[in-house]
Amino acid sequence: MKPRESSAAVAGIRQSTTRSLAEALGVERGDLVSLVGGGGKTTLMYRLARELRALGLRAAAATTTKIRDPGRDGGLRLVRSASCEGLGRALSEVEPEVLPVAGRNLVSGGKVAGIPPEWCDRLLGEGLLDALVVEADGAAMKPVKAPEEWEPVVPQGTTVFVAVVGLSCLGRPAVPEEVFRLERFCSVTGTAPGELLAPQTLKRLLRSPEGLLKGARPGARTIAFLNQADLPGTADPAEELARGLLETPAPYHRVVVGALRDLDQVFEIWTQG
Q: Considering only the top CATH level, what class is 8-272?
């Protein structure tokens, strides 16, 4: 994705660019960030938490569901405890150059069981961390999903709520290989199984209170993140989708377009002008 003209206001919508993911999402000291959806949540979680630690904040990654055991690869370190107090102490002992990933215990399949959502609130509220980035649902590495009744598991104290979709699904059929929880997705978006996925499909998913807005906390800053924008043919659909998500009444404070696996990526920030 090539950078576009910065701060271009057209038809009441403003677009700017930045190379900082934290700046693109507007994340600061004291924020509890909850991520939902598909198409790169884990990558977003680790990249954002790393940026925050590089800024000198006591930041950590965590999940309230399950994630793959990060081990010690890539500067990540799994930190486990059976109590919130013990977890806070263990997190404080991690070196600044290492990103701690908070979990409760290891379970079958090489997964880490997440921490209770109230622990996330306490870690921030009691000053044990400066910022926390939480993966609040799973998507089995699919670009899009719709939540079931029990999802997502979003901490009450969430200040930034980010709904993520992967643009790689555009033009592909609504099948289990592309969509996690396909039956639910079709119900929420009005899509028939096998139907080709279009920007309007993702717009319905992202704007629906039973779709990716499900679990958004009152008062939290809501952000739609359109990932995989470096793929051919995604620039125009991404702009169409960004503008559609900011139509009044706009459920999102901003829309961010980018490609998380490209460390030189320029992120587009779309807001109402």
A: alpha beta
